[in-house]
Amino acid sequence: MDNRAIGFFDSGLGGLTSIPHLFKALPQERVIYFGDTARTPYGSKAVSTIRQYACQIADFLVSKNVKMLVIACNTISTTCLKELKERFPALPIVGIVSPAAEKVAASCDETNRIGVIGTKVTISSGAYRDMIRTLAPQLTVFDRATPAFVPLIEEGIIENEIMDLTIHYYMDDFIAQNKLDTLVLGCTHYPLIRKNIERLYPGLEIIDPSQEIIGRIRQALAEKDLLADESQESENVFYASDLSENFTRMIQRILETERSDLILKFKNLDL
């Protein structure tokens, strides 16, 4: 057993979408989260810049004595996972792409037409497309970059006509021309607009990597005997490089659950 916190990080608030799934599956665990809200979005930045930022954040979380790192960001996972594992060889580190790719491979067949949406960096890397095709060569996969989603979500523009229009702009032709029936939300921000997508395109099967990563976290903790004691107090700390009112409001919105025992602390940190 190990009651240290799990370190989660993302380019902004998107990685928060994994936290409710973690608390539901592993309620004894606690979290130290870092969202780089001052420098988001990462999806249009140079890979060298993303790696520099990711290493800074990982160094900070490791200094807080976390027992594990979770890269709750598709852009960082596709560009920095190998480097971070080499940087911290003794620490379990989980990326978000492979669990979702495995879910697609296990749940889809050759009759499905699968779409992946994400940031420019994630899509240009081909990580989802390549991994899915490696696991299941018979599957048909299409992808599209949807870069405007992240800044709108970070500003809280979600249940809004502007967001719906942006979704139509990116998705109408992508879905219709490729006859998609399955969609992978290849950015952890995108579950925040899942209801919009489901309302605009009913019948589309959604695969959410923010949820799929939890099984991988549980597996990694169990293998290293790092699961927490169920009797511990759940104190969770959320850091941001720009602790805006919107960031704290979105945390409270995303983590709105029936649990009353969660202790949430918010801190600003300038890397």
First CA to last CA: what distance?
Answer: 31 Å
Helix content: 40-55%
**How much of the sequence is in beta strands?**
15-25%
Low-confidence stretches at least 5 residues in length (pLDDT < 50)?
none
Question: N-to-C SSE series?
Answer: EHEHEHEHEHHEHHEHEHEHE
| CA-based shape | globular
* Category by helix and strand content: alpha/beta
Q: What is the tally of beta strands?
A: 10
Question: Cα-atom Rg, whole angstroms?
Answer: 18 Å
Largest sheet: 6 strands, parallel
Mean pLDDT: 92
| Widest beta sheet: strand line-up | 4-3-1-2-9-10
The assembly state of the depicted protein chains is single chain
Written account of the structure:
With 271 residues, the chain is α/β, with parallel strands linked by helices. It is 44% helix and 17% strand. It has helices spanning 19-25, 47-63, 74-87, 97-107, 120-125, 127-135, 149-154, 161-178, 194-200, 209-223, 245-254, and strands at 6-10, 31-35, 68-71, 93-94, 113-118, 140-145, 182-185, 205-207, 235-240, 263-268. A 6-stranded parallel sheet has the order 4-3-1-2-9-10, with helices on both faces. A 4-stranded parallel sheet has the order 6-5-7-8, sandwiched between helices. Helix 2 crosses helix 3 and helix 4 crosses helix 6 (127-135). The protein is globular. The protein starts with 5 loop residues before the first strand and ends with a strand.
